[in-house]
Amino acid sequence: MDRRRGLSARLKLTLSYAGFLAVAGALLLAVVWGYLLRYVPDNPQGLLGVSPNRWLLVRTFFPAAAVAMAGLLVFGLVGGWLLAGRMLAPLTQIRDAARRAGDGALSHRIRMKGRQDEFRELSDAFDSMLRKLESHVDEQRRFAANASHELRTPLAISRALLDVARKDPTRDREELVERLQAVNTRAIDLTEALLLLSRGDTGTFTRESVDLSLLAEEAAETLLPLAEQRRITLDVTGGAARTSGSAELLLRMVTNLVQNAVVHNVPGGGTVTVHTETVAAGTDGATSVLRVENTGPPLPPELVPTLTEPFQRGAERVRTDEHAGVGLGLAIVHSVVRAHDGSLGLAPRPTGGLLVTVRLPAAP
Questions:
Q1: pTM score, two decimals?
Q2: Bridge partners of 277?
């Protein structure tokens, strides 16, 4: 933003210090002068014929007062300039850090030393903002790179299939069309998942009262054929758990969790349990809880925290069948939970599998 150049804060403080000191000195001299003249007679002989009269005192006092005022003004300007510079030095550090951040150097930190005061609090808040901003930018860069890589794969496969069809006219066209359709479907699913993830991150949706127990039953009914195909028992337990949010996004969240629990399970005879409840009000108010627990292979503890990152698939969880997914299932869940001011907890089960706990503010 273009602005007309004005007085610097240091110069303003200097003039303020000097002006205050000059006014205080002038008032002091005025008080002294007033009390001094009060007891000095205004006659040629003065007091008892030996003391100076008012005219002589005025002639003697005014030059000395003028010199004192000039000295106070100079002292106020010099001292105020030095004092203002020392007081505003932390702001200079914060300004330089802000300029470096504006140029893209988000890794820089002020780390201002000294005891706690307003400037140190501002510096610490600025460092905290830079830390979060750097983390967010790095996350977005990784997300963009991973998304580009994931989108490039189906496009490259489509191009290869088209090249094969062009170079080999005798190849079975029906097989090529089916493979192209499968690749195109995967690309569309990935794009829709990315759009849904972006919508959840921005939080642009209309809130309404939603019952998580009804969403759990709907998701279970939708995924029951998949569970039966894999010989997995799917149970929905618990009671009503109302929250405020987008029914579409919350249904996608529950569906992703249940599908993830069904797909990443033991080959046969596994179980998936979906439980909903409302926890009694506490200091933070009532909480609606959704738990999805499934059997499955043991998960390394260091793998679990990475499952909510986009496109992060543990080696033990990569699948090559029709339900391989795009690596955004739990990332979308995390985004939806965060957009609804909730919390997401992942914990590996001692006997194998995963326990996912979603906590959302309960609706009134």
A1: 0.57
A2: 289
Dihedral of the alpha carbons of 307, 312, 315, 317, in degrees to the nearest 10: 50
The residue type at 196: L
Contact 63, 70 (CB under 8 A): no
Amino acid (1-letter code) at residue 159 = R
Q: Which helix (H) or strand (E) holds 197?
A: helix 173-202
Q: Locate tokens 């990935």: which residue?
A: 190
d(CA 265, CA 355): 12
CA–CA distance from 56 to each of 45, 61, 185 (Å)? 11, 9, 106
Residue 290 falls in which region: left (phi positive, over 0), alpha (psi -120 to 50) or beta: beta
- Cα separation of 127 and 109, whole Å? 6
Largest Cα–Cα distance in the chain? 137
Cβ within 8 Å of residue 17, ≥6 positions away: 76, 79, 80, 83, 84
Question: What mean pLDDT value characterizes the chain?
Answer: 80
Residue-level pLDDT at 153: 67
In this prediction, residue 201 carries a pLDDT of 61
In the chain, at which residue ranges do the beta strands (DSSP E only) sit? 208-211, 233-238, 242-245, 271-279, 287-294, 343-348, 354-361
Tell me the C-alpha distance between 260 and 336, whole Å.
Answer: 16
For 64-83, how does the pLDDT look when each residue is reduced to its tens digit (9 = 90+)? 778 888 888 888 888 888 88
Place of tokens 């008892």: 48
Quote the CA–CA distance of 263 and 217 in Å, as a whole number.
18
DSSP letter (8 states) at residue 232: -
What integer is the mean pLDDT of 182-206? 71
Structure tokens at 43: 């006659």
CA distance linking residue 327 with residue 301, whole number of Å:
19
Cα-trace Rg, the chain: 38
pLDDT bin (cut points 50, 70, 90) of residue 281 is low
